[in-house]
Amino acid sequence: MSSSLPVDAIKVASDKHPKPSDVRYQYGTAGFRTLGKLLDSVLFRVGILAALRSKRLDGKTIGVMVTASHNPEPDNGVKLVDPRGEMLEASWEAHATTLSNASTTDAFIEALETLVQTAKIDLSKPARVVYARDTRPSGPSLVNALEDGFKAIGAEARDAGVTTTPILHYFVRAINTKGTPYSYGEDSEEGYFTKLGQALKKLVAGRPPVSPLLIDCANGVGAIAAKTLAAHLGDTLPIVLENTAITTEGALNNACGADFVKTSQKLPPSLSNVLKPGQRACSLDGDADRLIYFYLDERGSFHMLDGDKIAGLVAAFIVEQVKIAGLEEQVKVGVVQTAYANGASTKYLQERLPVKCVPTGVKHLHHAAERYDVGVYFEANGHGTVLFSDDTQATLRDYQPSTPAQSRALENLVSLTELINQTVGDALSDMLLVETVLSHKSYTGVEWDSLYVDLPNRLVKVVVSDRNSFKTEDAERRLVSPPGLQSKIDGLVNRYQGGRSFVRPSGTEDVVRVYAEANIRTQADELAFRVAGLVYDEAGGDPASRPKEFL
Ligand code: 16G
Ligand code: MG
């Protein structure tokens, strides 16, 4: 190796970003995430780590996103994006955790030296990064700390400004594929919006005009992106933007946004006088990578169309287009879900195509979806996308259709590969995908909703003394520890018609989550309550979180 770490420059800069002594950081499922005011040293160190990751990958551009997604406004976070626009490789999550916890500048330098050795990083390689942030008030100062990290190690850094998480992922892939046969698009926002807009126009050409779609932007960065998108789409898709108060203190994700809608199964109060019965509406989360649809029926009752409903709608449409195109033999479509998928959605999908269940977290779903020719993955919380393998994209390029119907279906499939952000779940791209299918099927929300009827379900959390004592298997559907607890859960579940329940430790909060569903509402609630009680009794729960009856 021809050069070494610029230790002096790193030391001087690191002293300006000391690690608080009483905090332990962890790079979890969604990167680092905690109160924004605790993250200064983490951002500085992540700047250096991103540069090293780039050097390790021969100067490929690495992405850094500063966001805390659907979390409340005082929180912030940061995550790294690998060269194809996917999540950071798992083995580097541990390096991130180690570097962030080095207690002093000297300990940090030592940890860096060790990383360079063990990961065999050639320091003479260039380091290239692209970074962005959401609209959180703590963003600008955290970005300053990140930039100090880039400067200290001499990385070539490109500021993508304030943008959504999925747009940053798109940039990373676009930059790294520029000028290659796998070119993903122009590496600019203009390029992103043009790509999506053109694909949508092709897909809905000749279809009747649609009524306006209302978007709840969670008072976050999605408001900015959705506004630009609306301008690109014009009459192709009329859009009404709500919850766009990105500068109002405390507004972000507050009683609005995809996580609020999914968790509370309610209409954001801010929309109660705005949304008309029958009108299509959707919510983005704070960094616009999750999407939940909903509508009010004639009687004003709220109906939610979550990630499972999106998976059902989209997978069935793709299967249909593949069949019409005459590609059934060459192109196999599969779906990936987690244990949180509603049992009715799993049944609906399994009757049509292969379905795989994997542990919670985008990276698990993404990797499993890569094994299909076309892999559709969605978490119930609204995060998901569709992946077309390189071979499948080549098949679509080379295929010679023999009828006009085949030809049209083939064009649709090719346009879908352009419309869909294949790097990661993207609320805006997914929204256009849903709108495409609704337009093709002439579905309103009501018809979409009636593809299958959700089983009533309930999600509760229990605070326990040590959530790490909970270990799962079978894609988190069964507990192996604490010993004996699973058989007690099984005993309870058997007493409920259509009953299903599982328990897993959260990856983002210090709690254990309990999910239950059953054929009728009261039974689902009761089952969740009873299983939570078991967990509480077995694991020394905090009295304050003793499960309360919600019947
Ligand atoms: C993170 C994950 C999300 C998962 C959620 C589960 C990413 C980018 N995000 O937000 O996929 O559904 O965590 O949270 O992987 P939990 O472990 O607290 O239930
Ligand atoms: Mg998010």
UniProtKB/TrEMBL annotation:
<dbReference type="GO" id="GO:0006048">
    <property type="term" value="P:UDP-N-acetylglucosamine biosynthetic process"/>
</dbReference>
<dbReference type="InterPro" id="IPR005844">
    <property type="entry name" value="A-D-PHexomutase_a/b/a-I"/>
</dbReference>
<feature type="domain" description="Alpha-D-phosphohexomutase alpha/beta/alpha">
    <location>
        <begin position="112"/>
        <end position="179"/>
    </location>
</feature>
<feature type="domain" description="Phosphoacetylglucosamine mutase AMG1">
    <location>
        <begin position="207"/>
        <end position="291"/>
    </location>
</feature>
<feature type="domain" description="Alpha-D-phosphohexomutase alpha/beta/alpha">
    <location>
        <begin position="61"/>
        <end position="94"/>
    </location>
</feature>
<comment type="similarity">
    <text>Belongs to the phosphohexose mutase family.</text>
</comment>
<dbReference type="Pfam" id="PF21404">
    <property type="entry name" value="AMG1_III"/>
</dbReference>
<dbReference type="InterPro" id="IPR016066">
    <property type="entry name" value="A-D-PHexomutase_CS"/>
</dbReference>
<dbReference type="GO" id="GO:0004610">
    <property type="term" value="F:phosphoacetylglucosamine mutase activity"/>
</dbReference>
<dbReference type="InterPro" id="IPR049023">
    <property type="entry name" value="AMG1_II"/>
</dbReference>
<dbReference type="InterPro" id="IPR036900">
    <property type="entry name" value="A-D-PHexomutase_C_sf"/>
</dbReference>
<feature type="binding site">
    <location>
        <begin position="504"/>
        <end position="508"/>
    </location>
    <ligand>
        <name>substrate</name>
    </ligand>
</feature>
<comment type="function">
    <text>Catalyzes the conversion of GlcNAc-6-P into GlcNAc-1-P during the synthesis of uridine diphosphate/UDP-GlcNAc, which is a biosynthetic precursor of chitin and also supplies the amino sugars for N-linked oligosaccharides of glycoproteins.</text>
</comment>
<keyword id="KW-0597">Phosphoprotein</keyword>
<feature type="binding site">
    <location>
        <position position="285"/>
    </location>
    <ligand>
        <name>Mg(2+)</name>
    </ligand>
</feature>
<keyword id="KW-0413">Isomerase</keyword>
<keyword id="KW-0479">Metal-binding</keyword>
<dbReference type="GO" id="GO:0000287">
    <property type="term" value="F:magnesium ion binding"/>
</dbReference>
<dbReference type="InterPro" id="IPR005843">
    <property type="entry name" value="A-D-PHexomutase_C"/>
</dbReference>
<feature type="active site" description="Phosphoserine intermediate">
    <location>
        <position position="69"/>
    </location>
</feature>
<feature type="binding site">
    <location>
        <position position="513"/>
    </location>
    <ligand>
        <name>substrate</name>
    </ligand>
</feature>
<dbReference type="Pfam" id="PF00408">
    <property type="entry name" value="PGM_PMM_IV"/>
</dbReference>
<keyword id="KW-0460">Magnesium</keyword>
<feature type="domain" description="Alpha-D-phosphohexomutase C-terminal">
    <location>
        <begin position="459"/>
        <end position="532"/>
    </location>
</feature>
<protein>
    <recommendedName>
        <fullName>Phosphoacetylglucosamine mutase</fullName>
        <ecNumber>5.4.2.3</ecNumber>
    </recommendedName>
</protein>
<feature type="binding site" description="via phosphate group">
    <location>
        <position position="69"/>
    </location>
    <ligand>
        <name>Mg(2+)</name>
    </ligand>
</feature>
<feature type="binding site">
    <location>
        <position position="287"/>
    </location>
    <ligand>
        <name>Mg(2+)</name>
    </ligand>
</feature>
<feature type="binding site">
    <location>
        <begin position="379"/>
        <end position="381"/>
    </location>
    <ligand>
        <name>substrate</name>
    </ligand>
</feature>
<feature type="domain" description="Phosphoacetylglucosamine mutase AMG1">
    <location>
        <begin position="306"/>
        <end position="443"/>
    </location>
</feature>
<dbReference type="Pfam" id="PF21405">
    <property type="entry name" value="AMG1_II"/>
</dbReference>
<dbReference type="Pfam" id="PF02878">
    <property type="entry name" value="PGM_PMM_I"/>
</dbReference>
<comment type="pathway">
    <text>Nucleotide-sugar biosynthesis; UDP-N-acetyl-alpha-D-glucosamine biosynthesis; N-acetyl-alpha-D-glucosamine 1-phosphate from alpha-D-glucosamine 6-phosphate (route I): step 2/2.</text>
</comment>
<dbReference type="GO" id="GO:0005975">
    <property type="term" value="P:carbohydrate metabolic process"/>
</dbReference>
<dbReference type="InterPro" id="IPR016657">
    <property type="entry name" value="PAGM"/>
</dbReference>
<dbReference type="InterPro" id="IPR049022">
    <property type="entry name" value="AMG1_III"/>
</dbReference>
<feature type="binding site">
    <location>
        <position position="289"/>
    </location>
    <ligand>
        <name>Mg(2+)</name>
    </ligand>
</feature>
<dbReference type="InterPro" id="IPR016055">
    <property type="entry name" value="A-D-PHexomutase_a/b/a-I/II/III"/>
</dbReference>
